[in-house]
Amino acid sequence: MSISSRFSVAIHILCLLAINEEKATNTSEYLAGSVNTNPVVIRKVMSMLKGAGLVHVRAGVAGAELAKTLAEITLLDVYKAVNVVAENDLFSSHEHPNPECIVGRNIQQSLTKQFSAAQKAMEHSLEIVTLADVVQDILADNV
Amino acid sequence: MSISSRFSVAIHILCLLAINEEKATNTSEYLAGSVNTNPVVIRKVMSMLKGAGLVHVRAGVAGAELAKTLAEITLLDVYKAVNVVAENDLFSSHEHPNPECIVGRNIQQSLTKQFSAAQKAMEHSLEIVTLADVVQDILADNV
DNA sequence: GTTACATGTAACAAAACAAATTACAGGTCG
DNA sequence: CGACCTGTAATTTGTTTTGTTACATGTAAC
């Protein structure tokens, strides 16, 4: 299956916070309107972004704002903030292979090694892109 | 969520076919015993591996064998054979963002670009490892 | 302080999916 | 023919994602 859209929703929100400068209008309801989802979904994602120190939100007060500049936030930061893939868990392995078979006994360690490397390669690709890059694409508005 | 364990099952099977030289004993039931799953799961995976030209299996006749050497089969070949992640579909995007918002209107194209790059990085990591590498780890049998 | 309106979260429902399993059709070969 | 295998459709079970309802709590204007 695919990695949760919570990641793309989070990126969407953060870009919107950067572009829409009137802080007070960035309510969960307003953001939900742009993302096209439920305000509760937004608040859940926002809660995770807050926990990671990427945004400032206060209970009871309308609007959120970025806690860092766009160039300081990589896609990997967002990815980790919303916890869409646990460490060494991009690939799932079949459980309890037969320990009496040499393959069953040893394959897990080899798979873990290779799968971990592949996951890290993907994550590194996210690390070299910042939200500033994404916002630049958005502002080009080539539609 | 994680990528289907069908991938790890496929790798397991292929390694076993290479190590267990007595072709006729490699029935779906025997393989299921090492992987610890149902024989039908094995046959389904085997069917996909056959479609990709990685194994030789014949209906009605016991046993399967590799169609190539271990060094000729990369993990990417296996990954593609069992179809665990569709092209540009490792990450899912939220659907139908609001086209009246500049972010909603443009974010998909930017996300597609970045997500595609990350997926390709992961896949390239799988491409540089062959089953020969995995079997080497298994035969070390360091338990 | 109370009112209006926001966020924070728990709890639940619906839809989508993976994996195991059952059942059976069809192939191969002694 | 009969034993045994592969091929595959259909079903079930368990899990996960996403959306939704409901309500507690926080804030600030008045």
UniProtKB/TrEMBL annotation, chains A, B:
A Pfam family annotated for this UniProt entry? Rrf2
Q: Which InterPro entries match?
A: Tscrpt_reg_Rrf2, WH-like_DNA-bd_sf, WH_DNA-bd_sf
GO cellular component terms attached to this protein's record: cytosol
The Gene Ontology terms for molecular function here are:
DNA-binding transcription factor activity
Q: Which SUPFAM superfamilies match?
A: Winged helix' DNA-binding domain
PANTHER family found in the cross-reference section: HTH-TYPE TRANSCRIPTIONAL REGULATOR YWGB-RELATED, WINGED HELIX-TURN-HELIX TRANSCRIPTIONAL REGULATOR, RRF2 FAMILY
Q: What protein is this chain from?
A: Rrf2 family transcriptional regulator
